[in-house]
Amino acid sequence: MLKINSNQHRPNGQQLTHYGQMREQGLMTEEEHDLERALHFDFTVTDPWHVPGIMSELVEGFDKLAHLPPSVVILGSSRAKPGDAAYLAAVETACLLAQAGFGIITGGGPGIMEAANKGAQEGGNTSVGCNIELPLEERPNPYLDISLGFRYFFVRKTMFIKYAEAFVIFPGGFGTMDELFEALVLIQTGKVRHSPVILYDSRYWAGLITWVRETMLASDKIQPEDAGLLLLSDDPQEMCSIVIEAYQASSCHAHAMNHREQLLR
């Protein structure tokens, strides 16, 4: 019978260690097996080693966005084309908001994101893009004053949430839905201040709105005020007015609270 030398089938003729030989012969105890794994374990692939990268992204994001003017997050599909109605509406909406004094924050990519960043620059205000690293992700669009790159989705969404006075959501796919419901749940639970969440294109969002009201609300999964967090509009000027009014009301409330605190000191 031919006896095969297992070392002949190892890369570069590598020899097994003492523990490796014992493992292959089935002579290792459980303790010895644990020791061998510990000796050859790469700790750089464990979760704690992601923390420095996460911290780095948070610090860079907070540093670069610390001095933004009041800003609006505009989200939507990366697949929208420059001639599409939604693309043109995003340009107009962002331009109106920029002229009213708001910076514009997007995901930094093509489609609706590009349209909103373009509108921000046309309106003469700060244009921010928070890009995410994906295997097939396109490069940042050319209309960015501040461009940030993220590996971690949740860090990227933290930037959206932290610096948003309002959210304007254009038609989009799973990524847009993820960002939309992230904002909704944080507003619903009081983790962030109440901000307008406006859905553009009532026809596109009609099915979702109906489901929220007739299924979620009707089965007591949410409260009536939760369903009321979603606003619909087909008019860029109307959306801009909603954002301005909400921001003014919020600013007046904050000023009143600060004045009250000073009086109590």
Description of the structure:
The protein is α/β, with parallel strands linked by helices and 265 residues long. It has a single domain (68-264), classed as Rossmann fold, CATH 3.40.50. The chain is built from ten helices and seven strands. The chain has a seven-stranded parallel β-sheet with strand order 4-3-2-1-5-6-7, with helices on both faces. The longest helix has 29 residues, at 236-264.
CATH architecture: 3-Layer(aba) Sandwich
| Whole-number total of structural domains | 1
Helix/sheet category: alpha/beta
Biggest sheet descriptor = 7 strands, parallel
Number of helices: 10
Mean pLDDT: 86
Strand content: 5-15%
State the share of residues found in helices, binned by percent: 40-55%
In the predicted model, the low-confidence regions spanning at least 5 consecutive residues are 1-11
Which CATH class applies here?
Alpha Beta
Q: What is Rg?
A: 26 Å
Give the SSE string: HHHEHEHEEHEHEHHEH
Spatial strand sequence of the major β-sheet: 4-3-2-1-5-6-7
In the CATH scheme, what's the topology name?
Answer: Rossmann fold
Distance between the termini: 94 Å
What shape does the CA trace take?
globular
Give the number of DSSP strands.
7
